[in-house]
């Protein structure tokens, strides 16, 4: 039986976005971003937040939250919860693929 080693890690972004860049990339005002950060819904735990710098992961999450809020008229807290579930689902799918338990690729992100 062949043994597989599973290696996990976190991609560290070399480039970061400013508050204005993040807001512009999400087509929102900077107040929208600040409100979600202050509520703990966005950029939670990122070492860059103290200097108002954001990673591609923050950008993906902000865009997803904005889309959920816009398309489903979701409250920010509900959009953040849905984003958490989507992110967890993606992590679990990656673990299954890495373990060789599934062959199918994950459905495209929305």
Task: Please write out the topology.
Elements: E1 17-18, H1 19-26, H2 30-38, E2 53-54, H3 56-72, H4 76-98
Antiparallel strand pairs: 1-2
Helicity range: 40-55%
Strand order of the largest sheet: 1-2
Rg calculated over all Cα atoms:
16 Å
Q: Give, in order, the helices and strands.
A: EHHEHH
Molecular shape: globular
Low-confidence stretches: none
Strand content: under 5%
How many individual β-strands?
2
Distance separating the two termini: 38 Å
Main pleated sheet? 2 strands, antiparallel
Question: What count of helical segments does DSSP give?
Answer: 4
User: Mean of the pLDDT scores?
Assistant: 86
Can you put this structure into words, describing what you see?
The structure is a single chain. This protein is mostly helical. 52% of the residues lie in helices and 4% in strands. The chain has helices spanning 19-26, 30-38, 56-72, 76-98, and strands spanning 17-18, 53-54. It has a two-stranded antiparallel ribbon with strand order 1-2. α3 (56-72) crosses α4. The mean pLDDT is 86.
Task: Summarize it.
The protein has 110 residues and is mainly α. Helix content is 52%, strand content 4%. The longest helix is centred in the C-terminal third of the chain and has 23 residues, at 76-98.
Record keyword descriptors for this entry.
single chain; 110 residues; mainly alpha; two-stranded antiparallel sheet; 4 helices; 2 strands; 52% helix; 4% strand; globular
